[in-house]
Amino acid sequence: MAARRTRALFTARWLALLIPAALLGGAYVGQYVYGLYPCEMCWWQRYPHFAALALALLAFAVKGGAARACVILAGLAILISGLIGGFHAGVEYGWWEGITSCSSTIQASGGGDFLDAIMKAPIVRCDQVQWSLFGISLAGYNFLISVVGAAAIFFYASRRPA
User: Fold this and answer.
1) Which pick of 31, 60, 131, 137 has the fewest CB atoms within 10 Å?
2) pLDDT tens across 64-100, in order?
3) Residue 157 in contact with residue 71, Cβ under 8 Å?
């Protein structure tokens, strides 16, 4: 019985590490390989995943209750990212009003003119879907994966050893 509960924390640790790593990896592949530049709310979704990665790595370094606390905090960070993704998906689908700022990636290469780089930078709007599969945007997938993943992390982390 205790072995099963130890295995549950082991599973929670790995979920807390792999979920944000996979989602961030997918985001960066989309950005740098397929040219899907992030909008402001896309960036907001990434920050909690970075925190979750750090907390999950810390959970592997510590033992017992501290490890469980780190896993639960990582799960909370993943959940927060998912909720931001849900809000962002609602903005993309026109269910509610979003923020008014947009973001873009600006790079002046090799001594280039920054003004020229600013003028040619893509403007990424938060209310436009850049990519979707089965009618679900990237923000929607972040919502689904993060919320389900956080629930799984909380389930496994809540199984306390005897």
Assistant:
1) 131
2) 888 899 999 999 999 999 999 999 888 888 787 777 6
3) yes
CB 37 within 8 A of CB 105: yes
Neighbours of 136 (CB within 10 A): 16
For the chain, the farthest-separated pair of C-alpha atoms sits apart, in whole angstroms, at 65
Choose among 26, 147, 49, 42: nearest CA to 92: 42
Rounded Cα gap, residues 151 and 162, in angstroms: 22
End-to-end alpha carbon distance in the chain? 8
CA distance 41 to 91: 10
> Residue 2: which residues within 8 A CB-CB, separation 6 or more?
161, 162
C-alpha span between 152 and 145 (Å, rounded): 10
Identity of residue 131? W
Q: Is residue 162 predicted with pLDDT exceeding 50?
A: no
What the block records as the tokens of 24 is 């961030």
Residues in the chain, total: 162
pLDDT digits (tens, 9 = 90+) for 8-63: 888 999 999 999 999 999 989 988 998 888 888 888 899 999 999 999 999 999 98
